[in-house]
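User: Can you predict the 3D structure for this chain?
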Amino acid sequence: MECLLEDFFNENRIDKKSDVCEFWGKKKLTNSCLYSLAVTVLALPVTQVSCERALSGLKYILNDLCSNMTEDVLEDILIIRANENLRANKWPND
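Assistant: Here is the predicted structure, written as structure tokens:
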């Protein structure tokens, strides 16, 4: 993995107006390990505000009517709410 990262860091940077999801979609076949890492990193909230917003949204998702929701379903809902790019289907088809 370290060699892959070194090779990647030696590549030219993409333009800041480029679509990052499209860039990694093209790299999926040639650098599948880095693609998986990028998808994971891009799914993480960047700021504490994002985390706080996600947690404050719990009161709308987990209420008395939905108290028997499983942990997996709750986690999936929070991931979708926290990542607009997943909701808008901006990722290339797998």
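Residues 47-89 form one domain. Residues 32-43 form the longest helix (12 residues).
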